[in-house]
Amino acid sequence: MPLILPLLLAVLLFCIGVYGVLARRNAITLLMSFELMLNAVNLNLVAFDAWRLDGLATGQTLAVFVITLAAAEIGLGLAIVLLLFRGHGHVDADAARDLVEQDATEQRKGAAT
């Protein structure tokens, strides 16, 4: 198989992930978009490893490392989303950013009095 086919698929996956990060407001959709981008990177790593034909399998080793990193990221991200939903009743990323700024402002006002 030519190298260009997996690379085009990886570019397509990465572009879909970037669109999801830039256009969506839901935190779950953001996490899924990050996963799509990481899977595109994994596809590139494995494709270049198969293309190089060395015996070290460095691309596959790095892909396993990226999968481990993605699992840790999704676990932490889902915990944050669950706490956000429990505390505020929504998972809107922009509103969560506004809530953090309001909480910090309220704490400053409470400390001043």
Automatic annotation (TrEMBL):
GO terms for biological process: ATP synthesis coupled electron transport. It comes from Kribbella turkmenica. Belongs to the complex I subunit 4L family. It is a multi-pass membrane protein. It catalyses: a quinone + NADH + 5 H(+)(in) = a quinol + NAD(+) + 4 H(+)(out). Keywords: Cell membrane, Membrane, NAD, Oxidoreductase, Quinone, Translocase, Transmembrane, Transmembrane helix, Transport. The keyword NAD applies. GO terms for cellular component: NADH dehydrogenase complex; plasma membrane. This is NADH-quinone oxidoreductase subunit K. Its main location: membrane. HAMAP family: NDH1_NuoK. Its EC number is 7.1.1.-. Gene3D superfamilies: 1.10.287.3510. It is found in: Cell membrane; Membrane. GO terms for molecular function: NADH dehydrogenase (quinone) (non-electrogenic) activity; quinone binding. NDH-1 shuttles electrons from NADH, via FMN and iron-sulfur (Fe-S) centers, to quinones in the respiratory chain. The immediate electron acceptor for the enzyme in this species is believed to be a menaquinone. Couples the redox reaction to proton translocation (for every two electrons transferred, four hydrogen ions are translocated across the cytoplasmic membrane), and thus conserves the redox energy in a proton gradient. The gene is nuoK. The chain crosses the membrane at residues 62-85. NDH-1 is composed of 14 different subunits. Subunits NuoA, H, J, K, L, M, N constitute the membrane sector of the complex.
